[in-house]
Amino acid sequence: MRSLISILDFTNDELDQLIATAKDIIANPEKYWDCCKHKKLATLFFEPSTRTRLSFEAAMIELGGSVIGFSQASSSSASKGESMADTAKILSCYVDIMAIRHPREGAPYVASRNASVPVINAGDGGHNHPTQTLADLLTISREMGRLDDMTIGLCGDLKYGRTVHSLIEAMSRHTGIKFVLISPAELALPDYVIQNTLEKHHIPYEVTTSLEDALPHLDVLYMTRIQQERFDDVEEYNRLKDSYVLNTEKMKLAKEKMCVLHPLPRVNEISVAVDDDPRAAYFRQALNGKYMRMALILKLLEEAKDPEKEAIRTDGLVYDRICTNPKCICQVEQELRHTARVSEDGVLRCIYCEQKV
Amino acid sequence: MRSLISILDFTNDELDQLIATAKDIIANPEKYWDCCKHKKLATLFFEPSTRTRLSFEAAMIELGGSVIGFSQASSSSASKGESMADTAKILSCYVDIMAIRHPREGAPYVASRNASVPVINAGDGGHNHPTQTLADLLTISREMGRLDDMTIGLCGDLKYGRTVHSLIEAMSRHTGIKFVLISPAELALPDYVIQNTLEKHHIPYEVTTSLEDALPHLDVLYMTRIQQERFDDVEEYNRLKDSYVLNTEKMKLAKEKMCVLHPLPRVNEISVAVDDDPRAAYFRQALNGKYMRMALILKLLEEAKDPEKEAIRTDGLVYDRICTNPKCICQVEQELRHTARVSEDGVLRCIYCEQKV
Amino acid sequence: MRSLISILDFTNDELDQLIATAKDIIANPEKYWDCCKHKKLATLFFEPSTRTRLSFEAAMIELGGSVIGFSQASSSSASKGESMADTAKILSCYVDIMAIRHPREGAPYVASRNASVPVINAGDGGHNHPTQTLADLLTISREMGRLDDMTIGLCGDLKYGRTVHSLIEAMSRHTGIKFVLISPAELALPDYVIQNTLEKHHIPYEVTTSLEDALPHLDVLYMTRIQQERFDDVEEYNRLKDSYVLNTEKMKLAKEKMCVLHPLPRVNEISVAVDDDPRAAYFRQALNGKYMRMALILKLLEEAKDPEKEAIRTDGLVYDRICTNPKCICQVEQELRHTARVSEDGVLRCIYCEQKV
């Protein structure tokens, strides 16, 4: 059974096919009105995320399917101590595909190993959020007309921003890509992303603390929020925060043909006045997210017809090497054996949260 | 884009058309089964209101459409600080029409200025609740066979009861209407409603503290709840509360042809024993609410086909006159400029909450 | 109007018909795809129960119907003090059938007396949960090929486990049934169940504290959870708990042809390793629950076409004998007259919670 847990689960060709499907849906929506008739999606949101949940629900309904689910853990059996594995097995009795949001890293992966239907990771803590990256890719493709040969600025919290890491991974597979990493030192891109992705794929990148300096060179600007909680020193936060707010003044420095993305929700890191700028693509990005989720649901349901495809990888597993990540699902899931595998970078990593063990 | 924020957004003719549509739906429900096929309604309830939310959802489903949404703010992105404007823009990517309930006055209006689909105000704090008034109008029309020439008693909390104020506004446009205002002095109808609506339209009205005295003269009795919180003096509340409870004894004083309305939920202001009285129309009123919401959804979706219609009024705006209403959306919404306009009564009012600035 | 409040509301023939319908749905699902077109189910969950709620919702959708509702009391009008009776009357305006979960015993019964559509009890406190019993019956029938002539072991909390009591009631109507009651003394089956059901129907039963001793003789093993809260003495709990955990070691003692049921969610009373045993039927039981709910919805909607059928029983009522059960709906429902009736065992019982008055 094929699932989507990390954006790396899909090849470049598969991502290109998803983008092509999404564009066909946009061009011919009525062609897809009955594609998921008699199919059901479960939206299992163990923590609230209205935008992502409603995007999945709208996607399924526009394909002619139905939706059941819950929007927070307090209305779920998890509050009675049910394991992720049991929830996945039971929900497989009710629906044809499920989208799971969970505060614990690796929880959707555990679900995918126990469900008999495809599982979509709709965000697992700070770990993965692959459908956001799908939205980002379609947006860049539609706004710029290509996915190659461009300079992409990533601005804000590059340390904890999982959408930033996933976008780097996905775009690093394309040719002619250059990144500009714009953040305060406290929130710089982690070394493992630089080594395992940028340097491994020989992707050129620049590091800067100045959004103004970077702006004139960018084809894409990906904004994220800087959260006060990330700073030890409040004064440092107050000193820095305004320099990472995008406003109409700063937009004057940018190319005429550029696009601004943001995973949303924003708080104040993009001034409302920028919304009227034709380069502001973040609301179109939300719309693109719906179309990519439609394409994804179609793909996974199609592949589910052949359940032998993509059996769970069992090669190279190392058991009982203890994962110490306090946010990993393996810390709480009943009778879940700690399991690791040597990853591409030669490091032994937990198969659930991908942290070193 | 046409929205429904206040009952005054519709002309009398438009209200009559909505009533006619609702009656046709009641007579021929199957005619409407596919009217909203492939259409989606979002029910965005930032505070719980089961009855209103389920009424909207039932309405949309009976028109063949689908529903997505949330039932309280804690499961929404608002808890992450997303603005009403951004929520409206994003939801416009997912649905064809939205119904918004919000504790802040003016929030649905802000949404309607940012959405690219019609917005229905499903209650904004103590401000407006126009679909309740639609239910009231259809109920009076169906129970009495007319909307003209009648005496309407309004009983209970006339000070804070927004449904009472809206009903007065809507019925004051009809001929031969007389109101009897039945309440303790503490909860009397505010002066501005008397001046701006009753006196302006030369509508006769009586003021009384006695439900018994008023009852024999009424064609319609509109009951509301008296809440203990409204009283400074608990003893005063205890002394008064029973005289505003409708029971079978008091019903004997009423005309044989009369109808009792209540916006529901009730607590104990109408005795359960009254439910069996054929004049008790409040549960039929709930049913009528569903039919009027169906008619409303149809009307707004029809008008949305011509998006030029009813552009947002931009005449007469006065900027940066500060609204001090602590419950107004303008106190919290990101980068929302305080804006006012001279209203019909010659007073400069906030365009969001309609309070004097 | 016919409702399902207790499993005893249905005759054995009716239960057999439901099982037959469920099996036909399993064999020919597409035959039922449009059975509930234009019908709506309300899932009114005044306390969370994801599995039960989603099972009902999946059931209605697979019949071609739609669902509205809420998943916890805080998003309902009940938090504003609305009575169960009023909620039932209003929801009757919106839907064709409703499933109610409520922490108060008797609440769904109150709803059924006030609704104008069928009501399904989806669990009322520790009182009844008849659709779980429907799932149990179909599971035993499918796993064993019969409902007669078998030894059924009931293990764990037999004192408070309402699903255990209902299963005993339902299976006691069949021939050749023997029960083995496996529990610590603290959680033994209550005397009234033994007297009113087992002894009344001359059903043989054994009592034991040892799961190991019982296992070799069982055709069906029904597991339930032992909760620490039930014990006065924590040490006693710790001493006992492991002996009621089903693991692969204990499974070796069981017959080759046996089935293990559990109402789920489990915490740790069945080891995850048992899931792979072909005799582990508890996830298939969850699937069966969906099919039985489909059969039930079909039956009640069919009977609702003849509203005269099964009027509310008004014979033998005794008024104003006070029910003192603190969990009974009659303790909180507005203007609900305390009412009792002499039950089959000759005891005067509250008609809502069935406790002695």
Task: Supply the key terms.
5-stranded parallel sheet; homotrimer; alpha/beta; 11 helices; 4-stranded parallel sheet; 3 domains; Rossmann fold; globular; 357 residues
Give the integer mean of the pLDDT values of chain A.
Answer: 93
Give helix % range of chain A.
25-40%
Largest sheet of chain A: 5 strands, parallel
CATH homolog superfamily of the largest domain in chain A: Aspartate/ornithine carbamoyltransferase
Tell me which CATH architecture of the largest domain in chain A applies here: 3-Layer(aba) Sandwich
Record the strand order, biggest sheet of chain A: 7-6-5-8-9
Low-confidence stretches of chain A: none
Please indicate the percent range of residues of chain A in DSSP E strands (runs of 2 or more): 15-25%
The separation of the N and C termini of chain A measures 27 Å
Query: What structural class results from the helix and strand content of chain A?
Result: alpha/beta
CATH topology of the largest domain in chain A: Rossmann fold
Shape call of chain A: globular
- Pair with the biggest interface: A-B, 28 and 28 residues
Tally of discrete structural domains of chain A: 3
Oligomer: homotrimer
Radius of gyration of chain A: 20 Å
CATH class of the largest domain in chain A: Alpha Beta
Fold and architecture overview:
Chain A is α/β, with parallel strands linked by helices and 357 residues long. Chain A folds into three domains: 140 residues, Aspartate/ornithine carbamoyltransferase (Rossmann fold); 150 residues, Aspartate/ornithine carbamoyltransferase (Rossmann fold, 3-Layer(aba) Sandwich), CATH 3.40.50.1370; 33 residues, no CATH class. Chain A is 33% helix and 16% strand. Chain A is built from eleven helices and twelve strands. In chain A, the strands form three sheets. A five-stranded parallel sheet of chain A has the order 7-6-5-8-9. A four-stranded parallel sheet of chain A has the order 2-1-3-4, sandwiched between helices. Chain A has a three-stranded antiparallel sheet with strand order 10-11-12, with no helix packed on it. The first copy, chain A, is globular, with a radius of gyration of 20 Å. The mean pLDDT of chain A is 93.
